[in-house]
């Protein structure tokens, strides 16, 4: 009887052991990358460049990202092959990478799956790798070809695609990114003619032809933009204090506008809760000659300088225009 009990006990313990082993193996397997197997090698980004560029917000001027106290969030897709949008490793779809620059020194932080990677990220060794990147990173984006954007003061950019072969991923991989602006930019800089307490509450750009795209999506492969055109783009709730002797700028960064004619675009400012509206001039003096804007083009910035009479009425008393007729690299 005792031997029978011992035999049953041994069988139960053996069954329990195999059950625990199966559970352990399953748990360990869940930690493996969902695609590919084998050895990994380190992956890193180098100092990113900005292609033929406009100067926007003083932050992304020139051909490099400048020194900053805050991080620049870049969105990354690390994919395993050609046209298939398949992440090489779990967490590599729309991964945030933060670029930090201090005293001219660059450093990156990576967040695969939303969590910080203290030891960096690794890719599968000797496997094809396709890198797609855009700026600024958009949380929750799930489709590489449909990154949501909102027109406003964010300078949306897309990097040139990088495709690495199996032979190019046998060791540590460092990928340089070259970004290009995919929007146009209308900048209006405002100055006060006299000292005073003036707050810029909001700005609205309106188009009588309803060609303005306030929001939509873009393709991080090639920068192509999709969106439903409408009558206006708004910069609400600005709360910016204006000062005499200083220029305060607002930016409409949005998809390009073509076929523009005089009298079609209007800007409405609200100063101290008082609205002021005027037609956006299209004739600009450039190099001593008058030229007429017929399109607000992708990758260009169009600058207007407005001096405000703030004694009685909030009306413009001086309007200086500057129009960049070609893309230029601006030094930082």
Major beta sheet, specifics? 8 strands, mixed
Helix content: under 10%
**H/E element order:** HEEEEEEEEEEEEEEEEEEEEEEEEEEE
Q: Overall 3D geometry?
A: elongated
How many strand units? Answer: 27
Distance between the termini: 90 Å
The chain-level mean pLDDT equals 81
Strand-residue fraction? 35-45%
What is the CA-atom radius of gyration, in angstroms?
A: 27 Å
Note poorly predicted spans: 14-32, 53-59, 323-332
Structural category: mainly beta
Q: Give the helix tally.
A: 1
Q: Could you explain the architecture of this structure?
A:
This protein has 332 residues and is mostly beta strands. Helices cover 8% and strands 43% of the residues. It has 1 helix and 27 strands. Strands 2, 3, 4, 5, 7, 9, 10 and 12 form an 8-stranded mixed beta sheet that branches. Strands 14, 17, 18, 21 and 22 form a 5-stranded antiparallel beta sheet that branches. Strands 19-13-26-27 form a 4-stranded mixed beta sheet, with no helix packed on it. A hairpin with a 6-residue loop joins strand 15 (215-218) and strand 16.
SSE inventory with pairings:
Elements (H helix, E strand, L loop, with lengths): L1 H28 L10 E6 L3 E2 L21 E8 L15 E8 L2 E7 L9 E4 L4 E7 L11 E4 L6 E3 L2 E3 L8 E3 L2 E4 L2 E9 L5 E10 L7 E4 L6 E3 L4 E4 L4 E3 L5 E7 L2 E2 L6 E7 L2 E6 L3 E4 L2 E4 L2 E2 L4 E9 L5 E9 L9
Parallel strand pairs: 1-11, 2-12, 13-26
Antiparallel strand pairs: 1-6, 3-4, 3-7, 4-5, 7-9, 7-10, 8-15, 9-12, 13-19, 14-17, 14-18, 14-21, 15-16, 20-25, 21-22, 23-24, 26-27
């Amino acid at each position: 009887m005792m031997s029978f009990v011992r035999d049953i006990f041994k069988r139960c313990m053996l069954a329990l052991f195999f059950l625990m082993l199966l559970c352990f193996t399953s748990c360990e397997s869940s930690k493996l990358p969902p695609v590919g197997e084998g050895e990994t090698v380190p992956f890193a980004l180098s100092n990113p460049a900005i292609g033929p560029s406009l100067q926007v917000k003083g932050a992304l001027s020139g051909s490099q990202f400048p020194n900053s106290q805050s991080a620049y969030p870049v969105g990354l897709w690390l994919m395993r092959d050609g046209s298939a949008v398949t992440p090489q490793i779990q967490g590599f779809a729309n991964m945030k990478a933060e670029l930090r620059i201090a005293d001219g020194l660059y450093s990156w932080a990576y967040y695969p799956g939303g969590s910080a990677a203290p030891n960096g990220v690794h890719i599968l060794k000797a496997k094809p790798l396709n890198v797609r990147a855009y700026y600024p990173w958009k949380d929750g984006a799930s489709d590489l070809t449909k990154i949501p954007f909102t027109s406003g003061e964010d300078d949306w950019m897309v990097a040139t695609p990088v495709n690495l072969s199996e032979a190019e991923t046998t060791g540590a991989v460092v990928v340089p990114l070259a970004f290009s602006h995919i929007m146009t930019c209308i900048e209006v800089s405002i100055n006060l003619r006299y000292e005073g307490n003036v707050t810029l509450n909001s700005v609205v750009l309106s188009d009588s032809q309803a060609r303005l795209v306030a929001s939509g999506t873009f393709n991080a492969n090639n920068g192509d933009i999709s969106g439903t055109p409408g009558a206006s783009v708004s910069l609400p709730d600005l709360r910016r204090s204006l000062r005499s002797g200083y220029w305060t700028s607002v930016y409409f960064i949005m998809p390009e506008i073509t076929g523009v004619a005089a009298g079609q675009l209007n800007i409405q400012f609200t100063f101290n809760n008082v609205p002021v509206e005027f037609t956006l001039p299209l004739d600009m003096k450039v190099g001593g000659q008058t030229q007429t804007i017929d399109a607000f083009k992708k990758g260009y910035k169009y600058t207007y300088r407005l001096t405000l009479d703030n004694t009685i009425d909030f009306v413009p008393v001086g309007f200086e225009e500057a129009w960049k007729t070609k893309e230029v690299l601006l030094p930082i």
